[in-house]
Amino acid sequence: MNKKVAVKNPFCSGEYVVYPAHGVGKVSDITTQTVAGSELELIVVNFDKDKMTLRIPLAKAKTTGLRKISEADTMNDALATLKGKAKVKKVMWSRRAQEYENKINSGSPVAIAEVIRDLYRSENLAEQSYSERQIYEQALDRLANEYAVCENISAESATKKLLDILSKQ
């Protein structure tokens, strides 16, 4: 005899959320589907930029890291992190790249800001490698998208504000 466990749904349709592995998406629907003979309540999240739809079981939403957009004070902490001094460890690039990817996929705005801060290069500094640039742009994109939703501005404006903060170091 299977007992149904009621899970409280903290999300509502039309709301923006952050899925750590993909960034900011919009909850389009909360639906019930039958999968392999059992009823599952699913949160349907659309990522317009990637043209992707993700269906996350409501019971697993918390363990997957799905969360609401950060509050203003969390975003302010991330912006303060951008203003800090870069902390580049003297380990092999492959190890640092893996750490940066883990920080980006954690979904934490402060951790993502650390990656951006550490990989940022102003116009007059040395060139970045292709993989450094890729990780930097991915982190900048993730933080800018969440900042844009948080501040209710366009993603381009958010990116410009983040770059302005970085260039004033």
Describe what you observe in this structure.
The protein is 45% helix and 21% strand. By secondary structure, it is of the alpha+beta class. The chain has a 5-stranded antiparallel β-sheet. The protein has 2 domains: 16-68, Thrombin, subunit H (Beta Barrel), CATH 2.40.10; 72-167, Methane Monooxygenase Hydroxylase, Chain G, domain 1. The model has no long low-confidence stretch (mean pLDDT 85). Strand 2 (23-35) and strand 3 (38-47) form a beta hairpin.
Assign a percent range to the helix content. 40-55%
H/I helix tally: 6
CATH fold group of the largest domain:
Methane Monooxygenase Hydroxylase, Chain G, domain 1
Low-confidence stretches: none
Radius of gyration: 18 Å
Architecture of the largest domain in CATH? Answer: Up-down Bundle
Q: Judging from the principal axes of the Cα atoms, what is the shape?
A: elongated
Largest sheet, strands/sense/barrel: 5 strands, antiparallel
Count of discrete structural domains: 2
* Span of the ends, CA to CA: 62 Å
Number of strands: 5
Structural class: alpha+beta
Looking at CATH, the homologous superfamily of the largest domain is CarD-like, C-terminal domain
Helix and strand sequence: EEEEHEHHHHH
Biggest β-sheet: strands ordered side by side in the sheet: 4-3-2-1-5
Average residue-wise pLDDT = 85
Output the CATH class name of the largest domain. Answer: Mainly Alpha
